[in-house]
Amino acid sequence: MSGFGYGDESLENGISQVKMDIQFETDLARALNENKRKTTFDLMVFDDTEDYLCYVEAVHLLMHENVAKECDFLLNSKKFMSGKSEKTYSYEQFLSQ
C-alpha cells in the first residue's frame, strides 16, 4: 500500500490504490497425508448483512438446538461455493462480486 496512513492527502483523496490477488487453498501436503483423501472447503462470501445474520442464526440453531435452518445465499453460486480445494480472486473480481 502506498501512502503514510491517516493524514496522507493521497489516501484521503482516493489517489492511492491497493491491488491484490486473494487466494484460498487447502494445504495439499497435509490433505494427502490425512487418510489419502482430498481436503476441500466451503467458501461463503457475504456481501450484505442479511445473509451474514442468517448464517450466524443458522449456526447457532444447529449447534445449540440441533435445528437446521436454510439461508437463501446457499442457492447463489457466487456467494456459496462448496467442495473447493482452491479459489483465487483478482482484486477487481472480489470487490465487484
Shape: extended
| Proportion of helical residues | 25-40%
Q: How would you sum up the major sheet? A: 2 strands, antiparallel
What's the end-to-end separation, in Å? 22 Å
Walk across the major sheet and give the strand order: 1-4
**Strand segment tally:** 4
Provide mean pLDDT, rounded. Answer: 76
Backbone structural class: alpha+beta
Q: What fraction of residues sit in β-strands?
A: 15-25%
Model regions low in confidence, pLDDT < 50 over at least 5 residues:
none
Radius of gyration: 19 Å
If helices are DSSP runs of H or I spanning 4 or more residues, what is the number of helices? 4
Q: What is the chain-wise order of helices and strands?
A: HEHEHEEH
Domain unit count: 1
Structure explained in plain terms:
With 97 residues, the protein is an alpha+beta fold. It has one domain (9-96). 34% of the residues lie in helices and 20% in strands. It has helices at residues 9-12, 28-33, 49-65, 91-96; strands spanning 21-25, 41-44, 80-84, 86-90. The strands form two sheets. Strands 1-4 form a two-stranded antiparallel sheet. A two-stranded antiparallel sheet has the order 2-3. The longest helix is centred in the middle third of the chain and has 17 residues, at 49-65. The radius of gyration is 19 Å and the shape is extended. It starts with 8 loop residues before the first helix and ends with a helix. The mean pLDDT is 76.
